[in-house]
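sorry for the late reply, my laptop died twice this morning and i had to redo everyting from scratch. anyway the thing you sent over, i finally got around to it. pasting the sequence first so we're on the same page, its 103 residues, then the predicted structure underneath. double check i copied it right bc i was rushing
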Amino acid sequence: MRKFTTKEIGEAIELSDETIRRCIREGQLAAEISGRNYYITEDAVKEFFNERGIRYEETPLAKPTLRQVTTRTVSSLGAIGAIVGIGIAFVAVLLQRSYKEMR
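ok and here's the structure:
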């Protein structure tokens, strides 16, 4: 489940960050609080938009941003790279042992 910041929601529907925060404080938008930041689930955003006649699918929030896609891809590649690195180290140790035995 995707989560959004107040800034992301505000930019998507051209409202200020403070307006979105006020909607949260007034109970119009459900959010989780972490420190001083609010995080809003995708379901809560859809409900909030629906109540205002805004089609979620027509907002920039409906599609992941290039940054989100890139972050996920890099994270996946990092995990793959770590596995490959371990494999290479293992092969190097085996080759080193074989070389010593051949001498």
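The mean pLDDT is 81.
thats about all i looked at so far, will dig more tmrw
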